[in-house]
What does this fold into?
Amino acid sequence: MFKIELILPRVLKSFLDETGAIAIFTGRFFRELFRPRFEFNEMLRQCYFIGVKSLPLVLATAFIMGMVLTIQSRPTLVSFGAESRLPQMVAVSLIREIAPVITALICAGKIGSGIGAELGSMKVTEQIDAMEVSGTNPYKYLVVTRVVATTLMIPLLALMSDAVGVWASYLGANIKGDMSWSLYITRAFEYVFFADIYPAVFKTFLFGFAIGIVGCYKGMNSQKGTEGVGQSANSAVVVASLMVFIIDLLVVQITDVFGMIN
Amino acid sequence: MEKISSIDYDKKVLEIKHLTKSFGSLDVLCDMNVDLYKGENLIVLGKSGSGKSVLLKCIVGLVVPDKGSISVLGHDVLSLTTDERDKIRMKIGFLFQSNALYDSMTVRDNLEFPLRRHGIKYSKKEVDDLVKDALESVGLPDTGKKMPSELSGGMKKRIALARTLMLRPEVILYDEPTTGLDPITSREISNLIVSVQQKYKSSSVIITHDMKCVEIVADRIIMLIDGKAYKEGNYEELSKSDDPQIKSFFI
It folds into this structure.
């Protein structure tokens, strides 16, 4: 009989432990999600904080992203004599990949760390215990509401990010060129198909879910006082960002297998 | 505040038998037996890390013991369903050591939270009256709109106590109510515990190592040493003890 600790390096064991714990936490989320009582008011409040409060940052990033992408791509396309393809290239890049992923990363930083720190601080100051003593299921009230809110709000933020990114790209194209808005938008959407949009939207739901779950898991498992709160917030961002890339890779592979990438 | 004892020794509100709890190889509580009578203020006295807070958390169901039974108001709390446990929790108030006020809510929202959560419908007037009464009971009638961050340590403790009073608990558990407070505020909180007990006819378990608080509040004291009930008695009896372990608390 041999011990598993002897075979698996400690880091790998800790990674597997963490993955298992997040999987159990996710299982509990789904159990609590469908059990009454439903915390609609708290969920709406979280949607406001997660969606509305993140909007300025996400839109500012999308604006800069769209403009920079256009300005950087233009000289290359000009050298190939393909300047007229600029709107299509930018729109496809933004809608398929850049806007969803950058929005998710911004949210992983802002929302993931916020949830991790807030729940972590509630844990170490016994607020979660106080909630339980008050007859409130903290998983339903704190976790389910936040995860549902991130799952619903991040796709909306990504769609707005798409729109602002394309508009900023039009402004960027007109710094050195001269193209009307109607021509730009017609060209931009010439090669954007429905099959580009729904995998992109689908993956933003998964990004939102992952950011919510990781933020809540890290917060609810916070330890060691205020130091632990900082660690929870930090690792929530790191793990959520990594999850965003892993989900992105998986969704791209799946959409490719199903022939959705043109 | 002069203490008027009105203990009903025929009625046990809390009965703990053979309670045992370990964390890994660390035995925190070993075969603890505790009774609390109606109207009584029971002090559990012990050094830091002696298992006092774990005892309270076992009573309210935040920590599940390894062995033993806990009966609160005639209900075995360890065998209750989640809904049944929530109903019993309405009758148990818990004052946390860190106050555990919700940072994101005003004082009024903090006080209303237990009312809203237990699923009982209150009219706006009833809620207003309960909030007003609880705030007046702790001597802070005009703090409803303040955020917890705007309050001093002593005020936070009073508001936390007001929150525990919202559901008119029959048993109140105090986890180190005077820790981190200056001597004057500590005495005020100790007097407040006595006045709350007399006003609401509640029974209390108070965990502390503040001897001034013990002197003001205690009807009976249990000394907890190494997870065991080492000695039991009133303040007079224990303060005159020659046992060095007990004496060390009263120096």
